[in-house]
Specification:
Layout (H helix, E strand, L loop, with lengths): L54 H49 L3 E5 L5 E4 L1 H6 L19 H17 L2 E9 L5 E11 L3 E8 L1 H23 L3 E5 L5 E4 L1 H7 L4 H7 L3 H4 L4 H14 L1 E10 L5 E12 L5 E10 L1 H15 L9 H13 L10 E8 L1 H8 L1 H17 L6 E6 L2 E6 L5 H16 L2 E3 L2 E3 L2 E8 L12 H18 L4 E3 L5 H20 L2 E10 L4 E13 L3 E3 L1 H10 L3 H22 L7 E5 L2 H4 L4 H12 L6 E6 H6 L1 H14 L2 E7 L6 H6 L4 E4 L1 H6 L4 H16 L3 E5 L4 H10 L3 E3 L9 H9 L4
Parallel strand pairs: 16-17, 19-21, 21-22, 22-23, 23-24, 24-25, 25-26
Antiparallel strand pairs: 1-2, 1-5, 3-4, 4-5, 6-7, 6-10, 8-9, 9-10, 11-13, 11-16, 12-13, 14-15, 18-19, 18-26, 19-20
Helix pairs in contact: 11-12, 17-19, 19-21
């Protein structure tokens, strides 16, 4: 559009006559002011009135008026231009608004009063399956929604729009191809009964909500049905949310009951409130805790053990919101661990402290002597007289009952701070603390012998036994100087006990240094033992190791016997200590090892034993710590021709516990040879799992005390089952010692125990009888 400035008509001067005409002169006709077209000027017309005209004035005035007219025209054109620019700005605004609507991600449409489309942007068309730019023509809004939604719009939404200018909600829309999709709709009423519809396809959001809802349902199911307790707590120690399992563990009726009644976890749950403080410290330092074990109280006051795993939960700004975690009731496991710990330091039959605990307390007392020079204590070794005869005639079960009653009577003879321990078999030891003199120990020995003089009642049987007691006081009787080491003190108490036994039954003896008779006897036996090695008076007996399922022999354990020319068959318990003190034990053990390997290799050559059958030899601590042990075993295997995997070396758990570091190198060296290693009397020592992992063990033997009590003790059954499961996990074989009844056999088989040995199958036998056992298909 071309805008032109306003142009006024030019003024003209007409001649009315000649120069000589009367009353006339050459003059110019000027327009009246009212003839000028002043459009929208800001100059008043009075500014242009003239009182007197002259030719010069007329000429000047004409010039002025022309200039004024041009100025007015310029002003008018400028005002037109301003109005044009204003219209152009309005059109630009409309163009930008239209462009924004066309580019909007949300669908936008306008309907008239009859529901006919008046406008739809590209996003709207795309939502319903149309191409951008398509003309919806006379289509009505009802065609774009399913029937139920159309009815809802007509019955609910339109009436609401009569009362209010807008409505917002969700609807199920219908695409051009007939498919449906969820839609978020906003309707706004505008002038002349038109509606503006803004809509958005919310399919993705709905799918996300459905997925989230499904995940929440799964989490809720896990939360509600989990066996472990699950919780959320405030930092201050109140429960925000718990699952049913946690309420059951803590003894509450429901999660709501627990949350309502527990206001302070630290003081209402934990038996030791300091455990909660430690829990909080770990959470603050690490942001989580793992396997946090604590003793807590259930609602009824019952103590239980729990294990907690928890972590901190933060918001997007890094602020701590709450703690979240799980709780597991580990009471049964802790009871088993406590039982194993008890077994490590207590005798499983009598519940007295065992050798390990006794030695620990004795060492503590001996180490205190330099700090307390006036302090004295005494060690009493107690050996029951005639116990073997009672045990053999009445059986092991009654023999165990006798040992239990003996332990009770011994405890009645000492003070609360003294220690009564069972060292093994029928041997007991007593540590008397803070005595004034040796007389105090003698008085205790006399009380014990008085207690032993009363008969023991064992299932209708009255049994009479006595005890021989050896006493050694912490200070030498001759020099009054304290003992410097445990070995000397224990040796002297043991010598005193043997002196008492040699004096007769029911005697006690105080070691006083004058033991020439004892030394003479020991020297005599030592000489006999040296001669026995040369004269081949020693022999091996064999007790079969049997596969419980097939009842077939899978190996033998060798036991040394001494065929004394005057005393007959002497069991090892009578001469092993003498051999140890005389320095002969290593020679004896080398002889046993060589004979055992040679015999097994001979049976294999004869076809009596298969290539996988093993021979088991027990080693003492002194032999195990010898630096020459690996070379000795390798040499014997090479000389006898026995395969290394056919030799099993056994050692007690207590021995491994006592000096693991000294033995570890030899153990690995033996395993490298291919020799099988076995822990004997497993369960009677306190060997940790970490220690068990550090040594190359191939099998374990369950101590006979557990096997004997498995038929009458649920705890012993649980311990046996635990050992079997542990061995299976660590890929070790399990041998049960002391199997004597069919009931024990059935129980062991049910528990998954693989091998066993005991009098149910065979007692230790000589070589000829062992060969006959090998020929049998079943024992």
């Amino acid at each position: 559009m071309q805008f032109r400035p306003f142009e006024p008509p030019e003024p003209s001067i007409e001649s009315t006559g000649s120069a000589g005409s009367a009353g006339s002169a050459d003059s110019t006709h000027l327009p009246e002011p009212t003839d000028l077209q002043f459009r929208d000027t800001w100059l008043p017309s009075s500014c242009f009135r003239v009182q007197k005209q002259t030719p010069d004035l007329a000429h000047d005035l004409t010039t002025i008026l022309e200039q004024v007219a041009q100025a007015i025209a310029l002003l008018n054109s400028q005002q037109d231009m301003l109005r044009w620019h204003s219209d152009l700005d309005g059109l630009a605004d409309l163009w930008w608004q239209r462009a924004a609507i066309e580019a909007a991600a949300d669908g936008i449409a306008v309907f008239d009063a009859q529901g006919i489309f008046r406008y739809a942007n590209p996003a709207y068309l795309r939502q319903f399956g149309y191409h951008p730019g398509e003309n919806l023509g006379s289509q009505c809004w009802q065609q774009f929604y399913i029937a139920n939604e159309v009815q809802r719009f007509q019955l609910e939404i339109w009436p609401s729009l009569c009362r209010q200018p807008s409505w917002r909600g969700e609807a199920i829309a219908l695409r051009r191809d007939g498919s449906t999709f969820p839609q978020e709709v906003s309707l706004t009423r505008i002038a002349d009964r038109h509606l503006v519809c803004t809509c958005r396809d919310i399919s993705d959001r709905k799918r996300a909500e459905a997925t989230l809802k499904e995940a929440e349902a799964r989490y809720r199911s896990i939360f509600e049905n989990a066996v472990e307790g699950i919780f959320q707590t405030t930092v201050e120690g109140r429960y925000l949310n718990v699952n049913p399992a946690l309420s059951r563990i803590y003894g509450f009726k429901s999660p709501a009951d627990l949350i309502t009644n527990i206001h302070s976890i630290q003081h209402q749950i934990y038996a030791d409130p300091n455990r909660r403080s430690e829990f909080m410290r770990l959470m603050q330092e690490n942001g989580r805790v793992s396997h946090f074990e604590s003793l807590i109280y259930r609602r009824d006051g019952t103590p239980i053990w729990i294990s907690e795993n928890a972590h901190c939960v933060y918001n997007s700004r890094g602020d701590l919101l709450y703690y979240e975690g799980t709780v597991e009731d580990i009471t049964t496991r802790k009871q088993s661990e406590e039982q194993l710990f008890l077994n490590a330091f207590h005798d499983s039959l009598t519940s007295l402290p065992n050798r390990a605990l006794f030695m620990n307390r004795l060492k503590t007392a001996l180490n205190a002597l330099p700090r307390r020079p006036d302090h004295q204590f005494a060690v009493l070794f107690v050996d029951l007289d005639r116990f073997k005869q009672v045990n053999d005639s009445l059986g092991h079960l009654l023999g165990d009952q006798l040992l239990i009653q003996v332990s009770q009577r011994l405890q009645e003879c000492v003070r609360g701070g003294d220690t009564v321990a069972r060292l093994g078999g029928d041997e007991f030891a007593i540590l008397l603390e803070d005595i004034q003199s040796a007389d105090d120990a003698i008085h205790v020995a006399e009380r014990m012998q008085e207690q032993m003089s009363w008969p023991f009642c064992l299932q209708g049987h009255q049994v009479h036994i006595s005890a021989s007691v050896g006493i050694a006081v912490s200070h030498h009787q001759s020099t009054h100087q304290p003992y410097q080491n445990l070995e000397d003190l224990l040796r002297d108490a043991d010598i005193a006990m043997y002196r008492a036994k040699h004096r007769g039954k029911a005697c006690h003896e105080l070691f006083d240094g004058t033991h020439s008779a004892q030394v003479f006897t020991q020297l005599q036996l030592e000489g006999d033992l040296r001669r026995a090695l040369d004269q081949q008076e020693l022999e091996l007996h064999y007790q079969p190791v049997v596969a419980l399922q097939s009842r077939r022999v899978r190996g033998f354990e060798v036991l040394m016997r001494w065929q004394h020319p005057t005393q007959g068959l002497v069991p090892p318990g009578k001469f092993i200590d003498i051999a140890t003190e005389a320095g002969l034990i290593l020679l004896l053990e080398e002889w046993v090892l060589r004979q055992a390997c040679q015999q097994m290799q001979q049976w294999q050559v004869q076809g009596l034993a298969g290539p996988s059958m093993m021979i088991s030899v027990n080693l003492t601590e002194r032999q195990f710590v010898q630096p020459t042990l690996i070379g000795q075993v390798g040499r014997i295997l090479a000389e006898t021709g026995l395969a290394p995997n056919c030799l099993r070396l056994e050692f007690t758990e207590a021995l491994l516990r006592a000096d693991l570091e000294a033995m570890i190198q030899n153990l690995h060296g033996l395993a490298d040879l291919g020799v099988q290693l076995c822990i004997d009397d497993f369960g009677t020592g306190f060997l940790s799992l970490s220690q068990l992992h550090s040594v190359p063990i191939h099998s374990v033997k369950i101590d006979r005390s557990f096997i004997h009590r498995a038929g009458i003790s649920v705890e012993s059954q649980a311990i046996v089952k635990t050992i079997v499961n542990l061995a299976e996990t660590l890929r070790m074989s399990v041998i049960a010692e002391g199997v004597e009844t069919l009931e024990q056999l059935v129980q062991l088989m049910a528990m998954g125990c693989e091998y066993g040995q005991g009098y149910l199958f065979s007692s230790p036998v000589d070589r000829a009888t062992a060969e006959s056992l090998l020929l049998k298909k079943q024992l």
